[in-house]
Fold each of these.
Amino acid sequence: MSAPIIRVEELTVSLNTDDHQRNIIDSISFDMFPKEIMGLVGESGSGKTMTALSIMQLLPKTIKICGGSIWYEDKDLLKMTSREIRTIRGNKIAMIFQNPRMALNPLMRVGDQIARAVCLHCEVSSEKSKSMAVELMSQVGIPDAESRARSYPHQLSGGMAQRVLIAMMLACKPKLLIADEPTTGLDVTIQAQIFKLIKEIQSEIGVAVLLITHDFGVVSEVCDRVGVMYAGQIMEISSVIDVFTNPKHPYTQRLLKSILRVDRKSDLDTNKALSPISAVFDSPGCRFASQCDCVRPECLWERPKIYTDSPGHSVYCFNYSRDNK
Ligand SMILES: Nc1ncnc2c1ncn2[C@@H]1O[C@H](COP(=O)(O)OP(=O)(O)OP(=O)(O)O)[C@@H](O)[C@H]1O
Ligand SMILES: [Mg+2]
């Protein structure tokens, strides 16, 4: 197997208020390999966006990384200067967000915005960058790209605006694309088209994709591997096939059951009872322990060690550690 493109090691991220420090990400580790699509699933508040923003180093001011490393190839992003980070961000790692219009400049024609991204990454004349922008827009499936290039963001639908952002991302030729719920708010047909586009781009330009979603259905259709998060901890990481056929962590098992129960509604938040309550963030052990049917005394005070079920399938749960067998 090739070397990971990104390696997150024991990343801990805390939210600091006047009277409290809470680890909203609690020592998570995962690798991503070139050209793979890895899903990160979890309910609202489980820390998916904060994981992505830690990689991008775009965390809000009150939230700080307080431990761990994020290796990009052989460099720790957390030890880089802000100038070095800026070179990685956009060039090597790009991110698309839930609300594409917020990420675009409302006062600039979208073609010019893409052309500007082209100029930042390729040494071409301004005339050439404009024609390349139109080509990129056609490549991401924007019909009548030449005239659409003259539109302002508010003149585009949400789906088209997301395609414009994907075209900008293509201009940067990144090695890793982070897509944080890129289809929220779009209707189902457009969602499917955007995921199809992401998959096509991944196979054509060989970019690795970290796809953040609530939706296990999307994971099954789009991803190669998946990490399951709960209240800032990773519970299980596995191939998509293994997670559906052989889920190990009691939380993953319960999630999958809840998806079947709600009959085709795969949004994790449909099962509110599973949502992390704020008290669990202060637990020194497994944050799912208070809701777990298989809880052991040690789950409440000790962080479970990693258990590897098979190559590529890891679970953080005392029920599988050797001593408990
Ligand atoms: N700007 C912020 N200031 C303070 N706390 C925040 C902020 N953004 C998120 N949090 C807290 O950080 C934790 C992780 O949030 P995060 O946004 O990463 O969750 P998420 O898994 O992306 O959820 P969602 O699915 O709703 O997008 C939550 O407890 C949340 O309340
Ligand atoms: Mg989020």
Amino acid sequence: MELSKRVQSIKPSATLSINARAKELKASGVEIINFGVGEPDFPTPHHVKEAAIKAIKDNFTRYTPVGGIPELKNAIIEQFKRDYGESYEPGEIIVSCGGKHCIYNLAQAILNDDDEVIIPAPYWVSYPDIIRLAGGRSVIVHTKEEDGFKLRPEKLEEAITPRTRLLILNSPSNPTGSVYSRKELEDLADVIIKHRIYVLTDDIYNKIIFEGTSWVSILHANPEVKEFTFVLNGVSKTYSMTGWRIGYMAGPDPIISACTKIQSQSTSNPNSIAQMAAVAALNGPQDDVERMVNAFAKRREYFLRRLEELKHVTFYPPQGAFYIFPNFSAYYGKKYNGQVILNSLDLTSYLMEEAKIALVPGSAFGDDRCLRFSYATSMKTIEKGIDKLEAALSMLL
Ligand SMILES: Cc1ncc(COP(=O)(O)O)c(C=O)c1O
């Protein structure tokens, strides 16, 4: 039987596949250092788990309103007031089965065939495929390492056509950890307002920010952009709740209502118990978040120090999230066992085989010069992994 053209046009998530392969090798007894993981390595906070257990005991186990329970929408509205200084109505909020699902709903709600979505590269792996599934076309705009991998306003302006519907911004970024400054966002907001295109600001990592950097959103930079803006967040990364599948988005009511209609005919409401857990996460104590960010900061520092010592590797120091995206292209063209390493995929395969390190090739993020490391793993693992990386690279010199 032939599969639909739609499904044939997309690929499975590269990060999830690498993770699955690393787990497979581990299960067969091979010790793998996994730098491929896109989720915090901490448990979900205790009080959040307790709230979920209470929800089960209270029989909070039935269908809920499609777009989320009022308690959770209120908690999100309060969070957005604190984080963005903006007020949203419940009709301007949707809760979905993870942030990824919010983006999926948005793409389905606003894109017609061949409508264009501008995505700065390096980008999170799922954006182009979500756009393709909705019939849209991704317009990839490459950024430069020396610009901190950030989109410049003149590049945005050049990429806009009459078919442009949406720009996706992600700060802090997966995979680069880059964070946009207020000025950079002000300049982008001017272009967005001038051309009246939508912008999705994917702020899923906005609580994971390191010393010396302050996180600002495009709404802070220019509140007039609000009528064009969709704000995305969720509990996955901030509260180490990736498996619970709760994400949320705020934006103009008619489009959020359209997203809710789409959700009503696909997944219905997100899990009722996870919604209660998310209320506890947003309204409860935040010290677990602080502890986790402090741990990431220490690992980041160590990682950067070790990377500086690696020969022929350059990198832009991440300011947020838990990723780093160094440039290894100086190793392309080197030979190992008669095989030439031509690109990021070849280098990740070599490192998996030779050093037993799992990494995601930069090509999955639209930049073949780099490899993505996640430091959401213990310090001991990081130390061991970089030792092995160093040894494997020196064999290529
Ligand atoms: C940039 C970015 N946005 C959105 C998501 C979606 O996260 P979730 O669907 O778990 O909320 C991820 C997860 O990896 C991400 O890295």
